[in-house]
From TrEMBL:
Start and end residues of each stretch annotated as Disordered: 439-458
Protein name in UniProt: DUF1329 domain-containing protein
UniProt-listed InterPro entries: DUF1329
Protein keywords: Signal
Entry superkingdom: Bacteria
Keyword Repeat on entry: no
Keyword Signal: yes
Signal sequence interval, chain numbering: 1-37
Length: 458
């Protein structure tokens, strides 16, 4: 009788504990949902429509976001990025190797390394201007996404999002990364840009002049009912220079779901007169277009599937980042690209708030980059700075994105971008172009491997 009573009491105790845990879980869910609902309502009020802090900082060095477009020159040619915003302003601060320690917390490790290893390198800081804007319909979709978008397939896919930032109030590093991938770049664009490699001797080589057409099915205004949820970007490009590569062409498709949908690139080689699928143009595969100075996943700060890393959302902080850098494109590569770095007199740095995201390589996964720290501009969600460590925990590579104003878009475009290999003492500059033309989307058939052959035969 005593044993039965003890067993009964033990069972009741376990039931009580289970009920307490269940109640606690329900309460947590209720409070979390209420809190998150309050956060969503703050979009467009205390937060910007994309989830940035609308107010300036306490010091006044970061102004409030107003949503006003930049004042572009009246005579600026359509699609041109080659102008100088805020041309009458002077630097309020110059950071060099001598005073770097004072500003260390606001500089990425890669920028610090550039300062330490190049006596002539400096960071010229100008007054901050929060010029990032998007069309109103992007803001409306972003608010809708805040309560319907979800990560699936272990972070390799996004469901339920369209036409705006999928996670304006991110709860994880994975959500922040998809905000980066799906940042506003237009509905469809045409652009000609250069891809440069600068070796350890300071010799600059044109790897490719690329005439690219891109469509972003995820961002077609009033196109949600037609969006099949498969690909967020389709790209087709022709090589215009150097002479040995003229006639080469590529098509790339970039999915919303890296687990179940088609991803890859196809290349047309005029000498062979055939199309082939390029092998594994992602992860740490050395980018053969730039002689392996950077890997495919280093473009734009980070590019391709996020699946190899566990992503941690560290939080917001204030950082010095390149911003409103159109002067760089106005100057052109011959003037602005130095032997070992982009010349400081052509780069505008500003103090902005960024999201810090850390990626640690998953157990059992092979990648030459064991960990990386990325900094995402809170006003655009573009990665703007990156630091990379190898498997020996040595900082060996980094990235800088020079954010420029597109008056026609409107918005900020993440170009050009730079990848730096500190071991090889070489760097890459991609998407260096002075024009960025929004256009009506071309049909999906234009972005197919078959279309490459048809285009080459014309």
């Amino acid at each position: 009788m005593t044993m039965k009573l003890e067993n009964c009491m033990r069972i009741n105790k376990h039931k009580t504990s289970f009920r307490v845990l269940m109640a606690a879980g329900v309460l947590h869910s209720i409070f979390f949902n209420v809190s998150y609902a309050d956060d969503v309502q703050s979009l467009g009020t205390t937060l910007t429509p994309l989830g940035a802090i609308k107010a300036g900082n306490a010091a006044g060095s970061i102004p409030a976001w107003t949503g006003n477009k930049a004042q572009c020159p009246a005579n600026l040619p359509a699609g041109s990025l080659a102008w100088e915003p805020f041309a009458d302003e002077k630097p309020v601060l110059s950071i060099t190797a001598q005073n770097m320690a004072q500003y260390k917390d606001q500089l990425s490790l890669s920028v610090q390394t550039l300062l330490q290893t190049n006596p002539d390198y400096r960071v010229d800081v100008y007054p901050t201007h929060r010029t990032a804007v998007q069309p109103d319909w992007v803001y409306q979709y972003t608010k809708a996404n805040a309560t319907r978008a979800t990560l699936t397939e272990g972070g390799k896919a996004v469901k339920g999002a369209y036409g705006g930032t999928p996670f304006p109030i991110p709860k994880s590093g994975g959500e922040a990364m998809w905000n980066h991938f799906l940042a506003w770049k237009g509905s469809a664009t045409d652009a000609v840009s250069d891809l440069f490699v600068i070796d350890s001797n300071g010799t600059r080589s044109l790897s490719a002049r690329i005439d690219a057409s891109r469509v972003y099915p995820y961002y077609v205004q009033d196109g949600e009912s037609k969006f099949d949820g498969t690909h967020w970007m389709l790209s087709r490009a022709q090589i215009k220079a150097p002479a040995r590569r003229v006639g080469e062409a590529t098509v790339g498709v970039f999915p919303m779901d890296y687990q179940n949908q088609l991803f890859g690139s196809w290349q047309y080689m005029p000498g062979q007169r055939r199309v082939r699928k390029l092998p594994n143009v992602q992860f740490d595969t050395p980018n053969f277009f730039v002689s392996g100075v950077a890997n495919f996943d280093e473009a734009y700060g980070f590019f391709g599937s996020p699946e190899q890393y566990d992503w941690k959302l560290v939080g917001r902080k204030e950082m010095y980042i390149p911003y409103n850098t159109n002067k760089l494109l106005k100057a052109g590569p011959d003037s602005a690209i130095g032997a070992h770095f982009v010349k400081p007199e052509f780069v505008r740095w500003e103090l902005h708030r960024v999201w810090q995201v850390e990626g640690k390589l998953k157990s059992g996964v092979r990648n030459s980059v064991a960990s990386r720290t990325l900094y995402l501009d809170e006003d655009t969600w573009n990665v703007v700075l990156s630091d990379l460590w190898d498997t020996q925990n040595k900082h060996w590579r980094g990235g800088i994105v020079y954010s420029s104003i597109s008056c026609d878009l409107p918005g900020i475009v993440p170009l050009p971008f730079e990848n730096i290999d500190f071991q090889q003492k070489a760097f890459v500059l991609g998407e260096w172009g002075s024009e960025y033309h929004p256009r009506e989307p071309r049909p999906r058939s234009f972005y197919s491997p078959e279309a490459l052959v048809q285009g080459a035969q014309r």
